[in-house]
């Protein structure tokens, strides 16, 4: 039996994006609340101790799925037997990685010269198994555009993680509150995904039938591994050569910096990539949907990233408290990197939807080398130097990344430039005004609200003044209405 989708792809994409963004919005509010509570009870050093393990775990966890979920989504046709075979591969990989990570826990402790990391490594090892369980059921919900149950499963995961982390932190469990938060969220996602998807294993297909998807997955998996390595090298070198307290401050700053991308990229990717994959043989529709999607993410990501950098002191003081003041300069230094991370999704959509994970892998080798060079080069200046090095490398490599990605596709560089320059200009102008009118004498919470109001009003005013900006605002209103009706307007 094959899983095929008929009907209006634009409508399905829009409804999927709307559902996933609403769910992510609710999850963001809860995650921010949990972060604010936990930060009052867990010190930067305690957070940094767990972050040492999470950094290495995060690199290894890419291997548990190895791109097979995306391979199932991208395939034009797939049988239930082939899905079962892919699920078996994911499960075997999860169990093997969990056992391997447990066996390597003394090596992790030796690397950081902290024997107390061994029990944390052992406790976090089941994360590999939980991820392997839910990988293919999540992929099937994405492939069939069943975003409502997927959003519910992800929201359940966020709720369980937040509640567990807050309760454990209030009970005084310190670093173990973070460990339990990760375990509860991952376990809940696995269980909720199985229930929500309704997927059940069938008779496995022979290995030969999934070999093309394995090839796609291997290229994507290696690319994702390099990306994970790049994203975690900073934590590893700071934890090893600067210390857990510095890593704790850096880790929370990084979390706030990446909040826009983590909350926007995943839900939009879940909706956009399946639709783009179906339009591989229709270049003009592919291009229009891509432009529309890029404008949506640029109009959200640019303002959020710029505001995060401008309002860093008030944001850290409000969400984390006075004990985390060292995160302020780190958050500002990481803001350019956060913006580039938000835009990475634009190239990822192309590689995934066109099945060009081989090209993605080749570029990842170049981009990862540049990022690691920047971070290591900044290490003599501590965590702040690492943050500046990461941001510098990300900004320098962004344009070459887009040029390389678009080669041989229906897309051109102008397709991005024409839809992002207005929100970019408006965001920069709003940032300058919010910086200039920063009410430093107010308490952090009120200061943050005032800066947010000033930024939002200025951004909207700029969009109305910029040539064509009023039209883009109207397009945005139509887009919101279209999302509610299950339609999508072309931004081209």
Quick gist of this model?
The protein is mainly α and 492 residues long. 83% of the residues lie in helices and 0% in strands.
Describe this structure in words.
By secondary structure, the chain is an all-alpha fold. The chain has one domain (9-485). The chain has 19 helices and no strands. The protein has helices at 9-39, 44-65, 68-74, 80-103, 105-112, 117-124, 127-143, 147-170, 175-197, 207-241, 244-278, 283-310, 312-319, 327-353, 357-378, 382-406, 413-436, 444-465, 469-485. The chain is globular. It starts with 8 loop residues before the first helix and ends in a 7-residue tail after the last helix. Mean pLDDT is 86; it is low at 1-7 and 479-492.
- In DSSP terms (H or I, runs of 4 or more residues), the helix count works out at 19
Would you identify the regions where 5 or more consecutive residues have pLDDT less than 50? 1-7, 479-492
Classification by helices and strands? mainly alpha
Average pLDDT: 86
Our measurement of the CA-to-CA distance between the termini, rounded to an integer number of angstroms, reads: 37 Å
Q: Biggest sheet: strands, sense, closure? A: none
Shape: globular
Strand content: under 5%
* N-to-C series of helices and strands: HHHHHHHHHHHHHHHHHHH
Helix fraction bin:
over 70%
How many distinct domains? 1
- Please count the beta strands (DSSP E, at least 2 residues each): 0
Give Rg in angstroms.
22 Å
